[in-house]
Amino acid sequence: MIRIFNHYVPRMAFILLLMEVALLLASAGLASLAEARHALHPGGGYWSALLFALLTVLSMGTLGMYQSDFRLHPGDALRQTLVRIVPALLLAFCLHNLLVHALPGLHAAQVGNWTFLMGGGAVLLTRLLLFSTVRTERMTERLILLGDGALAQECMELAVSKQGFQRFHIVGCVPVAGERRQVAASCLLPDLLPGGQSLLELARTHGAGEVVVSLGDRRGGAYPVRQLLECVLGGVRVVDASAFFEREACQIRIDTLQPSYLIFGGGFDQSFLRASVKRTFDLAASAAICVAALPVMLLAALCIAAEDGGPVFYQQERVGKDGRLFRVLKFRSMRSDAEGDGKPRWAAEDDPRVTRVGRWIRKLRIDELPQMLNVFRGEMSFVGPRPERAYFVERLGQDVPYYNVRHSIKPGVTGLAQVRYQYGASVNDAVRKLQYDLYYVKNNSLFLDLLILIDTVRVVLLGKGSR
């Protein structure tokens, strides 16, 4: 992983992005020479090539082509790349020509068909070659897990599930006295017995470059502090399970979280500069989306009013920053008497209270668009933890550790939990989503906001996670 502005990005995805930007620039330049247009013309060809490359990688990003779960199996890589590169190029083509006509000050000439054909071919060839290389053993990181309990099993499952750009090979688990064994016996390595092989020697024997400390209880005398120090001094990385989950899953696990990890772990930027940049981003993104989505919002309002004659908008009290209450604005997607008994409840899958129009606007996230008004008022940010109702906040604050940490920043229209996890409808879902929210609160930045915005477009296009 590479850490950029406190956010962890898969190394292979970052390398692939840089390679493809370079190839797309080269494709645009070669296509211009082949078509005998704009060649070496600094006012046209250069800007056109740069705009084409940036819009193409942006379009590929919105279709998930830089996600860590993009498969590396040769057959899957070819199929997934072909399925997504065509609509990505079409989207880039439309955006490019739209910007050229809307902003003539860019001095960017329209790119031709050869540019897109050569660019698409270069991306396809690069991915096939790179994915074949990534599958070799030399590109696989070897890990040793210290511990054989439930936490070690979860770390193992996370490492094995990383079948995309970042891949691991688990050498095995080192048993530690006092742990209740949860991993299979075939995954165990020799105990760290006196006179036996040390942890550093074990790592060097198996070629492991990292040790993940996955112990549920460290209060016993079996915790090998000295041997872990030897690993660090010997060039083998040592990482805590909490840091491993933060790095690889963008989660801060609360089941084994120690307060010291939050206090001394860095992050939580609430400086004036960060607040100013975030507010500027909120206003710019919300204004752009309001302008672009205005026809869709008008159509949704007409459909809602025509279906049952009820109110178009729905207001509900939610908990914002520092626990302050505000009224969130949404398009109404349920019947007017959805909570006629006055008892708050989460939305369920195939909820009978949802109207026919409501089902579609929820699936496409259109019901969230009026919240741009909450952003303009300063009650919400464009990106942040989703605001919850006071009834559920009081309940979850009592049952879930660190739940109120999410209220240290403004809630958002979209957020990391919304693009990484399904729609939450239970206490267990709230816990899972909180782990993403804590990661965002700790590591939020403009860079992460932009990535979440791109992922939001992908989620909307694919219709994931709605109820």
UniProtKB/TrEMBL annotation:
Chief location of this protein within or outside the cell: membrane
Could you tell me where this protein is found in the cell?
Membrane
Per the record, membrane topology reads: Multi-pass membrane protein
The protein's UniProt keywords, in alphabetical order, are: Membrane, Transferase, Transmembrane, Transmembrane helix
What InterPro entries does UniProt report for this protein, alphabetically?
Bact_transf (IPR003362), EPS_sugar_tfrase (IPR017475), Sugar_tfrase_EpsB_2 (IPR017464)
Q: Does Plastid show up as a keyword for this record?
A: no
Please provide one cellular component term from the Gene Ontology annotations of this protein. Answer: membrane
Q: Is Transmembrane one of the keywords?
A: yes
Tell me the superkingdom of the source.
Bacteria
Bilayer-crossing residues are 46-66, 82-102, 114-134, 283-302
What positions does the domain Bacterial sugar transferase occupy? 278-461
Entry's Gene Ontology molecular function annotations:
phosphotransferase activity, for other substituted phosphate groups
Q: Which family does it belong to?
A: Belongs to the bacterial sugar transferase family.
Q: Provide the protein name.
A: TIGR03013 family PEP-CTERM/XrtA system glycosyltransferase
Species of provenance: Pseudoduganella aquatica
The beginning of the lineage is: Bacteria, Pseudomonadati, Pseudomonadota, Betaproteobacteria, Burkholderiales
